[in-house]
Amino acid sequence: MPLPSRKKLHLGKTPMKFYFRAQDISVNLDGIDVEGSLVLVWKRGTRRTASEPFPIVEELSAVDGSLSRTAATTQDMAQICTMFKSSKGAFEPKLSKVSLVVEPPAGGAGRGGKAEQGKKLGSTTLDLGAYASVDMTSHPVELSFLDGKASVTMTLASHWLKNLAAGGPSDDGSSVASFCTDADSDAGSEASERSELEERSAPARSNSIKSAVRAAGAFGGMRRSRANTSAAAASGLEERSAPPGCSGLGGGG
């Protein structure tokens, strides 16, 4: 029996574009013996966004001698996705996945002397549909990992982008706002602008050089030597004014 299409699943429901932002992120690791740094990964569909590594801090209690491990980051993380609201005002579930990854201490080496890779501690789900609202809202959220041995607390802000047309089912699962993707897009725009600038300036440089050559031909003897010197200087100026290469504009995927 064929499965119903996504369009049929959302039949009679209103698509609405939403912006979700996770902020004030902190992690409790009291039940895990781990060191290094943490990376928080937030994924929906095929796209993901990840935080920069933030350090795990150990603290020994002066009262009972217990050891606590925590980590916190001031970096915010965001997603943009299409939510579907029923005629009764309820939003469909929209599941996303949150994962904790441990990055080893700087200089750590694994087998064969190679740099040690990050290790996933665990994952859990976060239903964005439970936090969607036509009003701008902000809710405290606590996520549990590894049967309660680790937990993540954050503030999840929700905002309906009423002036942004919802993409409907086609963008479902691929609307995570990725910082790396944004950087790639900016880099591509910059490279395009540089290319256009180079094309516009090339004819002007060519005409300038031709004028210098014609002027040099009108002189004889010693003045011809001076013209050659001027042409060489113009050539050097052209090389120095050429736009720099875009080899450093690569970005992550």
TrEMBL record:
What InterPro entries does its record include?
Answer: NT-C2
Composition bias (Basic and acidic residues) maps to 191-202
Matches recorded under PROSITE patterns: C2_NT (PS51840)
Region feature Disordered, mapped onto this chain = 167-253
- Stretches assigned to the C2 NT-type domain: 8-160
The organism's superkingdom is given as Eukaryota
Which Pfam families does UniProt cross-reference here?
NT-C2 (PF10358)
**Identification of the protein by name:** C2 NT-type domain-containing protein
